[in-house]
Write a structure and sequence with these properties.
By secondary structure, the protein is of the alpha/beta class. It contains 25 helices and 36 strands. The N and C termini lie far apart (64 Å). The structure holds iron/sulfur cluster and FE2/S2 (inorganic) cluster. Iron/sulfur cluster (SF4) binds next to helix 4.
């Protein structure tokens, strides 16, 4: 479709908006209400332009200009909002003439009538669309001399979001975001005319994706409370990275200043998260500069942990290792370690000659789906039938949003020369959702069920029986499933052309259930997405950070190894395990905080947090993504490659994996992929032999039977829950969800801080009484040392902690 913007001729796809035509031509037009991935509504009138088009006569021939002989352009009588105007053959768009400039001046002046112009104290200053547009398109003077509207300037929409009502320009982006993206209609305009303000029907913002409105608000009306008044935009160091809080690989900006992480924002990756992130990812960073952070190595001398240098600590470890056989050493790292750190761990294990190397949490089943079944996030967003087993909203929040894309039935937009379309005219406010596309199964009510056409509630731990029932096999025992509902879901998947089955951690916790799910998916020709427990579960399995034998797996090595090197793991939360750890010849803990395991270690080595590491992760699709270190003050902290370097030197070896660069050389040889040079949005690479997995040790399988608590995913990382004050105030500690019946029997109420033993580990949690869980079953957030699945909670151990301060400390 031929379109002319000012002097530039373009060939555009039908359906393109006029505003995108302007940007595709390399030109500019100001706008406020339009926003990538949301419906264009023509509310702000800032994008006005003069638009014309040729016409045909009644015989279908172009009406020609008498002078030029070309089709004659008929200008529309009024200036048009380009965001809601669709291009047509021969359209001419003028953004530079006097009438357009006058309109732009007027709209800026009008938008500023009630704006407080408090830019010197506004957090958005320097990154404010209104500030930029007023500078570029305003006349520089205002003729309005009356007093401006006064409204509340510090309205806490939640503990995480602050609204300055005076600054709001009523673009409606925030209101539309909630309705159109997560489908939680929690904000709206209240009152009319100049009295209009943004508000909620009830207190708070009951959504898991609230922080995105701070990214898209074009002015400083909606602000991230964790970073409010902490810095000006030009003072921040903006580091592009990806989330390390779940397996989605959602793109983020980590904004830091004077050595602190000040805020985390969503970043564009059209194939993964678009620009959206969940609140766990956004607000879960405050722990990084908590005063209790470990900043220097500690070595136990005379029974006390005393400060030391890395060289001294490494020499201490090397000396102790000298008295041991290498195969007696166990090495385990948390599953958000980068590939480079994984290479370091493997290299150290090889040098010592031990097969006891593992990452945790690691479910019983492989997190790498067979190649022929593997679904990408784009497959999910364009599926015509989806079955989700588990609580994907808490487990991998971005998947929740991309599944909702599939319910709209609008395929992801093609990128234009300027990137994502600013106004995708296929998107509408309050679009109907094809709920029938989605079925959700879980042992308790999960958030995504609100959007699903079918919800299957099954007895906890019966995931294998669920897939047997879906496959039409006779069920053993009681599954709690309704046969008609199960049949309906199976038929829908079977009839679909682009079906996807998403398997959460409760399925992967059982090899039998996962095998049943994969067979079912094959039978109905569905693709499969496996949601690994942490950011690099997929990658660490791909490169083989796995024990050489099942009896060397992480929980087993805690029993059998004589020396342990643990990175970011805290098994001593189980007092029985703690006792055994105290008997080890050597316990080395690499962590950012003095955990219970660090407190009994021989050597404690300060670890970089996920924001301070350079490296690579592989997300749940198998996409290799670059992680970049933000300039954050972490004392003498090192990542695992640093540990390998110091220890190697103390052992008299230059080990591979002694630095990020060294690990990348190894990865280049092994994977035939240069991870130092990945495309911005990541790359796929098949790795031979991936997905073989290793069976979980027997005790972990055994724990799953007969439990009364589902260890469930959590969007907020439980390890740091008490070190993130704003998230803690908004969501409480890691939740222990209890049915009203059980709460009454246990004399618990919502908000109680409790301590109890779950699967042997002492856990702290905040009680949430809800009818989402059935009587007789509870849920508690999974941790790296307590992966998802069914476990047993010892209710006789339950104590209510009356002093909340004591818990927080
Ligand atoms: S608060 Fe911000 S995003 Fe919401 S309507 Fe006002 S200006 Fe727009
Ligand atoms: S009317 Fe607001 S961007 Fe077009």
């Amino acid at each position: 479709m031929k379109v002319k913007v000012n002097d530039v001729e373009l060939d555009l796809a039908p359906g393109t908006s006029a505003i995108d035509a302007v940007f595709a031509a390399g030109d500019d037009v100001p706008y406020f209400c339009s926003q990538e991935y949301m419906s264009p509504i023509g509310a702000c009138r800032m994008c006005l332009a003069r638009v014309g088009a040729p016409r045909k006569d009644k015989d279908g021939a172009w009406i020609l200009d008498e002078e030029t002989g070309e089709p004659k352009v008929f200008w529309f009588p009024n200036l048009m909002a380009t965001c809601t105007t669709q291009v047509m053959e021969g359209m001419v768009i003028d953004t530079r003439s006097e009438p357009v400039k006058r309109a732009q001046n007027s709209m800026v002046e009008y938008t500023l009538i009630n704006h407080p112009l408090d830019c010197p104290v506004c957090d958005k200053g320097g990154a404010c669309e209104l500030q930029d547009r007023a500078y570029e398109y305003g006349s520089g003077i205002s003729r309005f001399e009356f007093d401006k509207r006064h409204q509340e300037k510090h309205h806490a929409l939640s503990e995480l979001i602050t609204l300055d009502r005076e600054r709001c320009i009523h673009c409606k982006r925030c209101v539309r975001f909630f309705e159109e993206v997560p489908g939680d209609s929690v904000l709206d305009f209240i009152e009319r005319g100049s009295h209009t303000y943004i508000g909620t029907a009830e207190d708070g913002l009951p959504s898991n994706f609230t922080g995105n409105i701070t990214d898209i608000c074009p002015v400083g009306a909606l602000l991230d409370t964790t970073s409010r008044f902490r810095g000006r935009n030009w003072e921040y160091h903006h580091t592009p990275s990806v989330t390390m809080d779940d397996a989605t690989g959602a793109a983020v900006w980590v904004d830091s200043r004077t050595g602190r992480v000040e805020r985390v924002k969503g970043r564009l990756n059209p194939e993964v998260n678009k620009t959206w992130i969940d609140d766990g990812t956004r607000f879960g960073h405050e722990y990084v500069d908590h005063p209790s952070r470990l900043l220097t190595p500690l070595v136990r001398r005379g029974g006390e942990l005393v400060p030391a240098t890395w060289e001294e600590a490494a020499a201490f470890v090397a000396e102790r290792l000298g008295g041991l056989s290498g195969k007696d050493v166990g090495i385990a790292l948390r599953a958000d370690a980068t590939l480079e750190e994984g290479v370091g761990a493997l290299s150290l294990a090889e040098h010592l000659g031990t097969g006891q190397v593992d990452h945790a949490p690691r479910p019983a089943a492989s997190v790498v789906a067979p190649r022929d079944l593997r679904a990408t996030i784009e497959d999910l967003a364009t599926a015509d039938a989806i079955l989700v087993v588990g609580d994907v909203t808490e487990e991998a929040g971005v998947l929740d949003l991309r599944i909702k894309d599939a319910l709209k039935g609008v395929t992801p937009p093609a990128l234009l020369p300027h990137g994502v379309p600013i106004a995708d005219l296929r998107l509408k406010e309050r679009m109907p959702r094809r709920r029938e596309v989605l079925a959700v199964a879980a042992p308790y009510r999960v958030d995504l069920m609100r959007s699903a056409g079918a919800s299957l509630r099954y007895a906890a731990g019966q995931e294998a029986a669920l897939f047997a029932a879906l496959a039409g096999e006779p069920a053993e025992g009681s599954t709690g499933l309704e046969p008609d509902a199960v049949r309906g879901v199976a038929e829908r998947l079977r009839d679909a052309e682009r079906a996807v089955v998403v398997l959460g951690g409760t399925v992967l916790a059982s090899r039998e259930a996962t095998d049943a799910a994969l067979s079912f998916a094959r039978a109905v020709k569905a693709k499969v997405m496996l949601v690994g427990p942490m950011a690099n579960s997929h990658g660490l399995e791909l490169i083989g950070v796995l024990p050489s034998h099942a009896s060397y797996a992480y929980p087993a090595m805690l029993e059998t190894a004589r020396a342990l090197v643990l990175s970011h793991l805290d098994p001593a939360q189980d007092p029985d395990v703690a006792e055994r750890l105290k008997q080890k010849d050597l316990l080395v803990v690499h962590d950012s905080f003095m955990t219970e395991t660090a407190a009994i270690a021989d050597v404690v080595l300060p670890a970089k947090t996920v924001y301070e590491r350079d490296g690579t992760v592989v997300n749940l699709e198998g996409r290799f993504l670059r992680v970049n270190a933000a300039p954050v003050e972490g004392g003498a902290s090192e990542d695992l490659t640093g540990l390998v370097r110091y220890l190697g030197e103390a052992l008299g070896q230059r080990l591979e994996g002694r630095s990020v660069r060294s690990s990348r050389r190894v990865l280049r040889q092994r994977l035939d992929l240069d991870v130092a040079d990945l495309p911005e949005w990541g790359a796929f690479k098949d790795v031979k032999g991936a997905g073989r997995g290793v069976p979980a040790p027997a005790d972990q399988q055994g724990r799953r039977r007969g439990g009364n608590v589902v260890v469930a995913p959590s969007m907020v990382r439980p390890e740091y829950a008490y070190l993130n004050p704003h998230l803690l105030a908004e969501r409480g500690g890691p939740a222990l969800r209890v049915s009203p019946e059980d709460a009454a029997a246990l004399e618990l109420k919502s908000g109680d801080d409790v301590r109890l033993r779950v699967g042997g580990l002492w856990r702290r949690a905040t009680v949430r009484v809800t009818d989402a869980v059935p009587a007789g079953l509870m849920t508690i957030a999974a941790t790296p040392d307590q992966p998802q699945g069914l476990a047993h909670a010892d209710l006789s151990s339950l104590v209510v902690l009356r002093d909340r301060e004591a818990v927080a400390s």
